[in-house]
Amino acid sequence: MKTEKRKCEKHGEYIAECAEYAHFSRWSLCPECQKEIDAAAELEAAENEKRQKNARIAENMSRSGIPKKYSSSQLSCLESVSGNKNEKAIQYASRYIAAFESIRDEGVSMIFFGSPGTGKTHIACAVAIEIIKQGFSAKYITAFDLLNEISACFRTRESVNDAI
Protein backbone atom coordinates (compact mmCIF):
# COMPACT_ATOMS: atom_id res chain seq x y z
CA MET A 1 0.00 0.00 0.00
CA LYS A 2 1.34 3.40 -0.97
CA THR A 3 1.34 6.27 1.49
CA GLU A 4 2.25 9.91 1.15
CA LYS A 5 2.14 13.03 3.22
CA ARG A 6 -0.69 15.36 2.21
CA LYS A 7 -2.10 18.61 3.50
CA CYS A 8 -5.76 19.26 4.30
CA GLU A 9 -6.80 22.91 3.93
CA LYS A 10 -8.86 22.60 7.08
CA HIS A 11 -6.92 20.23 9.37
CA GLY A 12 -3.32 20.38 8.22
CA GLU A 13 -0.94 17.55 7.37
CA TYR A 14 -1.84 13.87 7.41
CA ILE A 15 -0.63 10.59 5.95
CA ALA A 16 -2.81 9.48 3.04
CA GLU A 17 -3.08 5.83 2.02
CA CYS A 18 -3.74 4.62 -1.49
CA ALA A 19 -6.03 1.66 -2.09
CA GLU A 20 -5.48 0.15 -5.51
CA TYR A 21 -8.21 -1.61 -7.42
CA ALA A 22 -8.24 -3.33 -10.82
CA HIS A 23 -8.74 -0.18 -12.92
CA PHE A 24 -8.29 2.68 -10.47
CA SER A 25 -6.77 3.75 -7.20
CA ARG A 26 -8.19 5.83 -4.39
CA TRP A 27 -6.42 7.97 -1.83
CA SER A 28 -7.78 8.30 1.68
CA LEU A 29 -9.15 11.60 2.89
CA CYS A 30 -7.90 13.58 5.82
CA PRO A 31 -8.89 11.51 8.91
CA GLU A 32 -10.64 14.50 10.49
CA CYS A 33 -12.56 15.26 7.31
CA GLN A 34 -13.51 11.57 7.08
CA LYS A 35 -14.81 11.70 10.67
CA GLU A 36 -16.92 14.75 9.77
CA ILE A 37 -18.29 12.99 6.67
CA ASP A 38 -19.07 9.85 8.68
CA ALA A 39 -20.75 11.89 11.44
CA ALA A 40 -22.87 13.75 8.87
CA ALA A 41 -23.89 10.46 7.24
CA GLU A 42 -24.79 8.99 10.65
CA LEU A 43 -26.84 12.08 11.52
CA GLU A 44 -28.66 11.91 8.18
CA ALA A 45 -29.38 8.20 8.66
CA ALA A 46 -30.73 8.87 12.17
CA GLU A 47 -32.89 11.71 10.86
CA ASN A 48 -34.24 9.48 8.07
CA GLU A 49 -35.02 6.74 10.59
CA LYS A 50 -36.78 9.27 12.83
CA ARG A 51 -38.82 10.59 9.86
CA GLN A 52 -39.81 7.04 8.89
CA LYS A 53 -40.77 6.22 12.47
CA ASN A 54 -42.85 9.41 12.73
CA ALA A 55 -44.53 8.59 9.41
CA ARG A 56 -45.40 5.07 10.70
CA ILE A 57 -46.75 6.58 13.93
CA ALA A 58 -48.85 9.10 11.99
CA GLU A 59 -50.18 6.33 9.73
CA ASN A 60 -51.02 4.10 12.70
CA MET A 61 -52.69 7.02 14.48
CA SER A 62 -54.85 7.74 11.43
CA ARG A 63 -55.92 4.07 11.25
CA SER A 64 -56.46 3.68 14.99
CA GLY A 65 -60.02 4.96 15.15
CA ILE A 66 -59.16 7.18 18.12
CA PRO A 67 -61.73 9.98 18.25
CA LYS A 68 -60.21 13.39 17.51
CA LYS A 69 -61.27 14.62 20.94
CA TYR A 70 -58.96 12.00 22.51
CA SER A 71 -56.06 12.19 20.06
CA SER A 72 -53.76 13.69 22.69
CA SER A 73 -54.90 11.65 25.69
CA GLN A 74 -52.29 10.82 28.32
CA LEU A 75 -52.50 8.79 31.51
CA SER A 76 -50.53 11.51 33.30
CA CYS A 77 -53.47 13.90 32.83
CA LEU A 78 -55.66 11.55 34.89
CA GLU A 79 -52.95 10.64 37.42
CA SER A 80 -52.65 14.26 38.51
CA VAL A 81 -56.33 14.48 39.50
CA SER A 82 -56.51 14.04 43.28
CA GLY A 83 -58.89 11.36 44.49
CA ASN A 84 -59.12 9.79 41.05
CA LYS A 85 -61.46 6.80 41.23
CA ASN A 86 -59.68 5.23 38.25
CA GLU A 87 -56.39 4.80 40.10
CA LYS A 88 -56.36 1.01 39.68
CA ALA A 89 -57.33 1.26 36.01
CA ILE A 90 -54.56 3.80 35.42
CA GLN A 91 -52.01 1.58 37.18
CA TYR A 92 -53.12 -1.44 35.17
CA ALA A 93 -52.98 0.59 31.95
CA SER A 94 -49.45 1.78 32.80
CA ARG A 95 -48.29 -1.79 33.42
CA TYR A 96 -49.98 -2.92 30.20
CA ILE A 97 -48.14 -0.23 28.21
CA ALA A 98 -44.79 -1.12 29.81
CA ALA A 99 -45.24 -4.85 29.17
CA PHE A 100 -46.91 -4.58 25.77
CA GLU A 101 -43.99 -5.70 23.64
CA SER A 102 -43.63 -8.93 25.62
CA ILE A 103 -47.38 -9.71 25.86
CA ARG A 104 -48.65 -8.63 22.45
CA ASP A 105 -48.15 -12.03 20.81
CA GLU A 106 -50.32 -13.61 23.50
CA GLY A 107 -53.28 -11.51 22.36
CA VAL A 108 -53.68 -9.79 25.71
CA SER A 109 -56.11 -6.90 25.39
CA MET A 110 -57.97 -4.48 27.60
CA ILE A 111 -61.66 -3.82 27.99
CA PHE A 112 -62.91 -0.88 30.01
CA PHE A 113 -66.40 -0.79 31.45
CA GLY A 114 -68.16 1.46 33.91
CA SER A 115 -70.51 4.38 34.28
CA PRO A 116 -70.48 7.24 31.80
CA GLY A 117 -67.96 9.98 32.46
CA THR A 118 -65.48 7.91 34.44
CA GLY A 119 -62.55 8.25 31.99
CA LYS A 120 -62.78 4.92 30.14
CA THR A 121 -62.31 6.42 26.70
CA HIS A 122 -59.52 8.70 27.88
CA ILE A 123 -57.60 5.77 29.42
CA ALA A 124 -58.20 3.51 26.41
CA CYS A 125 -57.02 6.17 23.98
CA ALA A 126 -53.99 7.03 26.13
CA VAL A 127 -53.00 3.34 26.11
CA ALA A 128 -53.50 3.09 22.34
CA ILE A 129 -51.46 6.24 21.72
CA GLU A 130 -48.55 4.99 23.85
CA ILE A 131 -48.58 1.64 22.07
CA ILE A 132 -48.60 3.39 18.70
CA LYS A 133 -45.63 5.50 19.84
CA GLN A 134 -43.79 2.24 20.59
CA GLY A 135 -44.16 1.39 16.89
CA PHE A 136 -47.17 -0.91 17.04
CA SER A 137 -50.70 -0.47 15.77
CA ALA A 138 -53.75 -0.16 17.96
CA LYS A 139 -57.47 0.00 17.32
CA TYR A 140 -60.00 1.95 19.35
CA ILE A 141 -63.50 0.57 18.99
CA THR A 142 -66.60 0.70 21.14
CA ALA A 143 -68.28 -2.54 22.18
CA PHE A 144 -71.33 -1.55 20.12
CA ASP A 145 -69.26 -1.06 16.95
CA LEU A 146 -67.33 -4.29 17.56
CA LEU A 147 -70.57 -6.24 17.88
CA ASN A 148 -71.83 -4.62 14.67
CA GLU A 149 -68.64 -5.67 12.85
CA ILE A 150 -68.93 -9.22 14.17
CA SER A 151 -72.60 -9.51 13.20
CA ALA A 152 -71.76 -8.18 9.72
CA CYS A 153 -69.46 -11.17 9.28
CA PHE A 154 -72.43 -13.50 9.32
CA ARG A 155 -74.06 -11.55 6.48
CA THR A 156 -70.91 -11.26 4.35
CA ARG A 157 -69.32 -14.62 5.18
CA GLU A 158 -66.19 -12.79 6.36
CA SER A 159 -64.24 -14.52 9.09
CA VAL A 160 -65.15 -13.38 12.59
CA ASN A 161 -61.47 -13.73 13.51
CA ASP A 162 -60.58 -11.25 10.77
CA ALA A 163 -63.08 -8.75 12.14
CA ILE A 164 -61.78 -9.15 15.67
Number of strands: 3
**Widest β-sheet, arrangement of strands:** 1-2-3
Overall pLDDT score: 89
Shape: elongated
**Strand/helix succession:** EEEHHHHHH
| Secondary structure tally, helices | 6
Biggest sheet descriptor: 3 strands, antiparallel
Helix content: 40-55%
Give the N-to-C terminal Cα separation: 64 Å
Structural class: mainly alpha
**Low-pLDDT ranges:** none
From the alpha carbons, calculate the radius of gyration and give it in angstroms.
27 Å
Percentage of residues in strands = 5-15%
Task: Kindly describe this structure.
- With 164 residues, the chain is mainly alpha-helical.
- It has helices spanning 31-63, 75-79, 87-103, 120-133, 143-156, 160-163, and strands at 2-8, 12-20, 25-27.
- β1 (2-8) and β2 (12-20) form a beta hairpin.
- α3 runs parallel beside α4 (120-133).
- It is elongated, with a radius of gyration of 27 Å.
- The termini are far apart.
- The mean pLDDT is 89.
Which terms would index this structure?
6 helices, single chain, mainly alpha, three-stranded antiparallel sheet, 164 residues
How are the SSEs placed, and which strands pair?
Blueprint: E1 2-8, E2 12-20, E3 25-27, H1 31-63, H2 75-79, H3 87-103, H4 120-133, H5 143-156, H6 160-163
Antiparallel strand pairs: 1-2, 2-3
Helix pairs in contact: 3-4
